[in-house]
Amino acid sequence: MEQILEILNDLHPEVDFTTQTGLIDNKILDSFDIVSIVTEISNEFDIAVPAEEIIPDNFNSAQSLQAMIDRLLDE
Amino acid sequence: MRINILEYLDQAAVEYGSKIAYSDGIDDMSFAEVQEKSLAIGSYLAGAGIRRKPVAVFMRRHPSTVSAYFGVVTAGCFYIPLDEEMPAFRIELILENIKPEIIICDNHTQKQAEKFALSSKLVLFEDLISTEINPELLAEVRSSVIDTDLVYIVFTSGSTGVPKGVAACHRNVIDYIEQLTDILQVNENTVFGNQTPLYLDACLKELIPVLKTGAKTYIIPKQLFLFPLKLVEYINEHKINTVCWVVTALTMISGLKVLEKSVPSSLHTIAFASEVFPIRQFKLWKQALPQARFINFYGPTETTGVCCFYEVDRDFGDDEMIPIGKPFANREIFLIKEDGSSAQIGEVGEIYIRGSSITHGYYGDFVRTSEAFVQNPLNEMYPELVYKTGDLGRINEEGQLVFVSRKDYQIKHMGQRIELGEIESAASSSEKTGLVGCIYDKDKKRIILFYTGEQDDVSLRNLLTEKLPRYMLPARLIHLSELPLTGNKKIDRNELMNIYKNGGKLNGTDFRNTE
Q1: CATH second-level architecture of B418-510?
Q2: Which pTM does this prediction carry?
Q3: How far is A24 from chain B (nearest CA, A)?
Q4: Residues A44-59: what's their mean pLDDT?
Q5: Chain A residues in contact with chain B using a Cβ-Cβ cutoff of 8 Å
Q6: Residue B161, SS3?
Q7: Fewer Cβ atoms within 10 Å of its own Cβ: the N or the C terminal residue of chain A?
Q8: CB half-sphere exposure, B22, CA atoms < 13 A
Q9: pLDDT tens string B313-347
């Protein structure tokens, strides 16, 4: 969880990612952020995020991003 | 000869009537409806005695916004598009410059609009469209409009922190659309997918050719650009075949490897603008859609939309750059070297543009207008204004124009033109901020802002969010104890770049604030 929080805080230090659950719904992340997050996840966790995982549900909170990463690491 | 862009709408309403002109996938608007709504809005404004005046349109990204633009023009006025994406501070600066008597909003933007519509009358689109149409008054208005009258003012970044309002007239837009429609080969079967915001001149590429040809435009919901697989599904579902997008919207799809899963196979014409298309990304597109036409566009807002194009007709090496090609018909590009003489083939010079698409200049700002709209330096015999772009280019061996770089601190980021000075000026607006210096990392496409003083990252970021559009926000804020200066005591941006690349250190000196 710490790694993903670090990635997110780097993009938006003003957002409290431990509590925010509407990163997409509240328009906090933009398309540039999504690309950055996907790239950083690939680098940090050595996994590829497939296109079908890039959906609002997976990007709405740090928790949902972590859940997606865990799932991809398991595969 | 056409003298008013509304002639396109008149003709379309007759020829294509109930056919859909604009849609966002949920709400549709036919050619007849666009005309009906614009006549009603025009009747309201003309009835209120407003003519040759700015009218601000602050509405959501939706087909009805397009009809509001035409409504303003129907009244012999010109529209100033505002958008909820713009921070309140920027909107206030624009309104201060324009001082519109009337702002048109819709049900979705009304609350936000009430906050800044202090010295203007706020009217609701939903009310305006029920205004009774006054054909006599509108005919009288129409006969008084000439092709040098304004159609719109759109705002671009200005280095002093005050955005510049580019004022374009009917002649500019007509000259642009006539050439563009030919190059894109737009016809009745064209289905556009609009990506660019409706508050920029870039959206004219889709909005007006639709009227000229009876084509259709989908105004793609913004959120889809976050989720590329859904975006590709949307394109295929609506059989969108022509797009004119900023490069970053295309590379988002290819960069996230979406083309391996799903191809937007309905596309046959893919135009891109605003930035250099990285060849590796471009090849992914070419591979996915080998039959499609790929067109590189170039051109500043000051010369209406785009004015140069290059249709990709060969393979490119990874280290090559796709040229910006040749000018559209009825305009000329020439390159002037530092010494004032013409650049020869292969030599770098500043790009100048001349032709009927040169706009009137910056609204309410004669000083900045005269700096960029200048006498043709190659013509000593009669007055002829040309636009000095501030872009450097060269002509390659094939006779194609190639973009080299900017002369100043303007950058292209997320498809938008940004003056780094505007970001610096926003950051300096708090007295807690000391010195600031902004740089752009082209490789990682990141804006980096260095600052000194008592300011901290969080409050500085909040300040910038308040003052700047989203696309101008720096990706990194770096606090230094002092900023490197040049011999003339100016902020040394080259040194800042070195500090950034060396993680805060330069020549043994640690610039980072370690307190």
Answers
A1: 2-Layer Sandwich (3.30)
A2: 0.88
A3: 9
A4: 92
A5: 10-14, 24, 29-32, 34-36, 38, 48-52, 54-56, 59
A6: coil
A7: C
A8: 29
A9: 999 988 788 999 999 999 999 999 989 999 999 99
